[in-house]
Write a structure and sequence with these properties.
alpha+beta, six-stranded mixed barrel, about 55% helix, about 15% strand
Length: about 400
């Protein structure tokens, strides 16, 4: 019985191909928009998490607090220094790495080639804190850091520009006015979510950077990587207490430093993109309502056109439920076809967007299954009234209908 009803529904749809296509177009657009928006949003969320993860796992970044532009700053600004670093190194038991770093944009030269790159002075712990490997060559040693040796580890962008695919170890490049021996190449990190090339970098020992590049002993940032079994919130509280003691900040005074938990930043950004995705998906879902109204409209027309057919079926013994099921299945099949086409179109659009925007293609099987079920539900809900109207026709009046 059901398969016969399903076959009749297909025949009815095929009899009016163009009208059926225009009817399900609303469902196609609605489902495609929902699938595309949610898939693109999921990819964006994954991209945000990936970009934050590239900074390092369980990472906290300490910087000097900046004065308020309004002039209402309630603390005395003070840059980070060696005392702050020493306090964290001696007082933090819950960190697996603590590293100081300072950076400048400097012109880097090799032969006839030159490029403006971010030059960072740091120590051996930096590579641990940032989860940054040195697959070619090596990182600088503790003795090279203490002695301020003019050695450097370069990013993949610098390597490709100056040395192609070759091994640059042992070569000498000029960083600003300083000759620097290349000892290694950093692992590729790619472009960050803010469009910054993270591989256009040069790393050198902090004392060498301070003396020869910056000309001061300031520290821009202190990177703290929490141990794997320690929550970053706990480490953050320890950092704040140590720095307040080191800097002799009064109990009622504000901090003149800033600690940023990158795990919380990642969660906040991921939450924001998820919320935005949900809003866009909800807006796109309005198209499904429009598509459902279109199905109701066309099914009412179909009932009117097939009034004599309904009358004949009722006269030869068909029950009201048979007529109801026939038109209900027809509306559901029509809507379901629209949903399947919409899913294919939505995934295609999401794939194109992912390739264009360089974000992961992250389709959700749960969302796809929900779209199929929802499109079928739309057909049943909006097809019920026309089907009920057809089932309740009086056989005599239906046979008289021209």
């Amino acid at each position: 019985m059901f398969w016969e009803t399903f076959r009749l529904a297909l025949l009815s749809i095929r009899r009016n191909v163009m009208r059926s296509f225009l009817t399900l177009l609303g469902i196609v657009i609605g489902v495609a928009a929902v699938i595309a928006m949610i898939t693109i949003g999921s990819g964006t969320t994954e991209r945000v998490k990936s970009d934050i993860a590239k900074l390092g796992s369980n990472l906290l970044v300490v910087r000097a607090a900046r004065p308020d532009r309004s002039g209402s700053t309630s603390f005395t600004p003070k840059r980070l220094d060696d005392k702050d670093l020493a306090g964290l190194l001696s007082g933090l038991d819950s960190a697996r790495a603590v590293s100081a770093a300072s950076s400048r944009q400097v012109r880097v030269v090799y032969g006839a080639q030159n490029v403006a790159a971010e030059v960072t002075g740091t120590d051996t712990e930096y590579f641990i804190a940032r989860d940054w490997d040195v697959p070619l060559g090596r990182a600088f040693t503790e003795s090279e850091v203490r002695g301020g040796a003019p050695v450097c580890v370069i990013g993949e962008t610098i390597r490709t520009l100056f040395f192609g695919a070759g091994d640059p170890s042992g070569q000498s490049i000029r960083v600003g006015k300083v000759a620097c021996k290349v000892i290694g190449v950093l692992a590729v990190k790619g472009v960050s979510g803010f469009g910054q090339d993270q591989d256009n970098v040069v790393m050198m020992p902090l004392p060498a950077f301070q003396r020869r590049i910056a000309g001061d002993r300031n520290i821009d940032s202190i990177y703290v990587a929490a141990a794997d079994d320690v929550p970053t919130t706990e480490v953050l509280a320890d950092i704040e207490q140590i720095l307040r003691d080191t800097r002799r900040i009064a109990p009622d005074a504000d901090d003149n430093f800033d600690v940023r938990d990158m795990t919380q930043v990642a969660d906040a950004m991921a939450s924001a993109t998820t919320t935005m995705t949900g809003m866009l998906g909800a807006v796109a879902a309005v198209s499904l309502l429009v598509g459902g109204i279109g199905i109701m409209n066309i099914m009412l027309v179909s009932v009117t056109e097939r009034t004599r057919e309904i009358g004949i079926r009722l006269a030869i013994g068909a029950h009201e439920r048979h007529i109801l099921v026939q038109f209900l299945v027809e509306a559901t099949v029509l809507s379901l076809f629209g949903g399947l086409i919409g899913i294919a179109l939505g995934l295609s659009l999401a794939g194109i967007a992912s390739a264009t925007l360089s974000i992961p293609f992250a389709p959700s099987m749960a969302v796809i299954a929900l779209a199929v079920g929802f499109s079928a539900l739309i057909g049943m809900v909006f097809g019920f009234f026309p089907a009920l109207r057809g089932a309740r026709l009086d056989p005599i009046d239906a046979l008289r209908h021209e």
